[in-house]
Write a structure and sequence with these properties.
Layout: H1 3-24, H2 29-45, H3 50-73
Helix pairs in contact: 1-2, 2-3
């Protein structure tokens, strides 16, 4: 597996997360549907390698934590 390419894809995905959060808000179905869909797509792109699945799962959980922290501040 090309780890550099994968992590460059992760950086691009995080940038897209920021764009989607600004466009739709983290409290929208559009945002979470997109996050779930693209997390799976990126995992599929790398044949669901154990590292990739764990990394993308961690990033999705990270998004959930950011969302929950934001909700607590409201």
């Amino acid at each position: 597996m090309d780890y550099l390419k994968f992590y460059m894809d992760v950086v691009e995905w995080i940038n897209q997360v920021n764009q989607m959060a600004m466009k739709h808000g983290m409290d929208s179905n559009e945002f979470w549907n997109w996050a779930a869909k693209t997390t799976g797509e990126l995992s599929d792109k790398y044949q669901n390698s154990k590292l990739v699945v764990k990394q993308m799962s961690m990033l999705y959980i990270w998004l959930e934590e950011i969302y929950e922290e934001g909700m607590l501040k409201k």
